[in-house]
What we know:
Elements (H helix, E strand, L loop, with lengths): L5 H11 L23 H12 L2 E8 L5 E10 L2 E3 L11 E2 L3 E3 L10 H14 L8
Antiparallel strand pairs: 1-2, 1-4, 1-5, 2-3
Helix pairs in contact: 1-3, 2-3
Amino acid sequence: xxxxxxxxxxxxxxESWGLDTSDPTDAPTWSPANPARGQCAVTxxxxxxxxxxxxxxxxVHLPDGTQQGFHYWNRLAxxxxxxxxxxxxxxxxxxxxxxxxxxxxxxxxxxEQYLIFRxxxxxxxxxxxxxx
Length: 132
């Protein structure tokens, strides 16, 4: 039976990040030195797939007030689980979260990245890949 502890899930997730799983809008700033960059949507969705809980979304702003993008993470049993918060520079400010159901099914900018990431994490955990 696969090990589905949060520690095992986190390890599989961190091992599965790559340029090919980064949100296309963040891909130009992704690097091995900051592997969490652009991984928040795919990471939060895979955690949601595996253990449920609630998805959170917040705007991210630059010091001049312009919106940099959005940030996604999970809430499990009332505890926030954010494995990608370290992607942000100190000057990038994460706003107040809103509860969301899921990101749009199709078309979604990072749909291909999500599928690559989901399959990689499931394989790392020894789980059957959905749809295979």
